[in-house]
Amino acid sequence: MGDFISVSHEFSASFFMVKEGIPFVVGCLLLAAICLLLFLTFGSFVFIGGIVLFVLLAVFMAYFFRDPQRTVPNEADAVISAADGRVTRVEDRENGKFVSVFLSPLDVHINRAPISGKIVKVDYIKGKKNPATSDEASLINERNALTIEGEKMTVIVTQIAGIVARRIVCWSKLGDKLAVGDKFGLIKFSSRTDLLIPKNVEVLVKVGDRVVGGETVIARLKS
Fold first, then answer.
1. Segment 101-128, tens digit of pLDDT
2. What's 208's DSSP letter?
């Protein structure tokens, strides 16, 4: 399965970071400790720069893998954003309405269920790592698509790796039931998350809008 990981995952509400970030933070702190040891051994101030660099990298990694609390809207007819980021595409397609969100390295990279429902299909494709904003990314990049079947609609949410993203992580599996806003995975470093939703919805966002995963209502069933 290449760089794709599908594992069970437990979160602690009191912990500010997902466990996938721990190796990155610890690794940076170990390198800082080595630089400190070299400084104490040789007395060269060159190693001070290494200490500062790796401590700053550890802080950034903790920030990148942060796991903020979200207030999920209680709306049965709503589709919630599956990711934090900027809307880069809103399109009407033959098979539904399409909304794409680009995640920069500064955005929260946890993906959340856009609706409540059961995962009825999982499609992982080990593709390329072209820029996530390109038109072809949804067709040729590494990606993982979950089809979530709810009571009122079926939504396909796709995690897409970008040029910097190194790994798609999916904590949920085929047959799992998700509540809207549940965390189901993440993409390490910059990436993209696409939603394909039914035609009978009103899309409430436009290109350029900033959205918040688990909070922003991006579409609603037409009455």
1. 999 888 999 999 999 999 999 999 887 6
2. T
Q: Mind listing the pLDDT tens digit for each residue in 202-214?
A: 999 999 999 999 9
Of 2.70.70, 3.10.50, 2.30.29, 1.25.40, which CATH number belongs to 78-221?
A: 2.70.70
What are the boundaries of each domain within the chain?
19-64, 78-221
Nearest one of 76, 79, 103, 72 to 182, comparing CA atoms: 72
Tokens 């688990």 — which residue? 214
| 118: β partners | 149, 177
Say how far residue 23 (Cα) sits from the centre of its chain: 18
Instruction: Exactly one of 81, 116, 172, 191 is catalytic; name it.
Output: 191
How does residue 142 score in pLDDT terms, banded at 50, 70 and 90?
confident
191 assigned to active site: yes
Chain mean position to CA 17: 13
Q: pTM of this prediction?
A: 0.84
pLDDT on residue 212: 97
In the three-class reduction of DSSP (H, G, I as helix; E, B as strand; rest coil), residue 62 is classed as: helix
